[in-house]
Amino acid sequence: MKDADDTSTHENYPAVIVVPGGSYTHIPEAQAETLALAFSNLGYQCFYLRYHFAGEKKPLLPAPVIDLAQAVALVRRHADEWHVDANTIVIAGFSVGGHIVSLYSDYWHTDWLKTQSGSARSVLNHKQLS
Hints:
Elements: E1 13-19, H1 29-41, E2 45-49, H2 63-77, E3 84-93, H3 96-107, H4 111-119, E4 124-125
Parallel strand pairs: 1-2, 1-3
Antiparallel strand pairs: 2-4
Helix pairs in contact: 2-3, 2-4
C-alpha cells in the first residue's frame, strides 16, 4: 500500500477494488496483481477481491456480491489507516468479475445487501503495493 506522500498535499488516495475473472472457480492472481499494479501507477490505492467460488457455497449467488459489499465496507472502515479517500472507491470487474460488479451495482443500496454484508465474513485480500 502507498503511504501518504510527504512531497505533496496528498494524504489519501482514491481506491480501486479489482474483481478479477476466473469463471467462479479460481482467481488468476497474476492477472489481479498486474491490474492492481497498473492502477497503482495511476495513483490508486489498490486491492483485489477473493470472492467465493463454485463449490464453496451452494447456491453460489449472491455470495460473491456480498463479498464485494464487505470489501467496500472494509476499505471505507480502514480508509484513514490505509490512506484512502473513502468517497472515491472505484470497483473494476473483469470477465466474471464484471458480472459480480454489475450485480453489486444493481443492489448496493438495498437493505438485504446491507444486512447480508454486515453478517457474513469478509474475504478481501489486499496487496501491499508501493
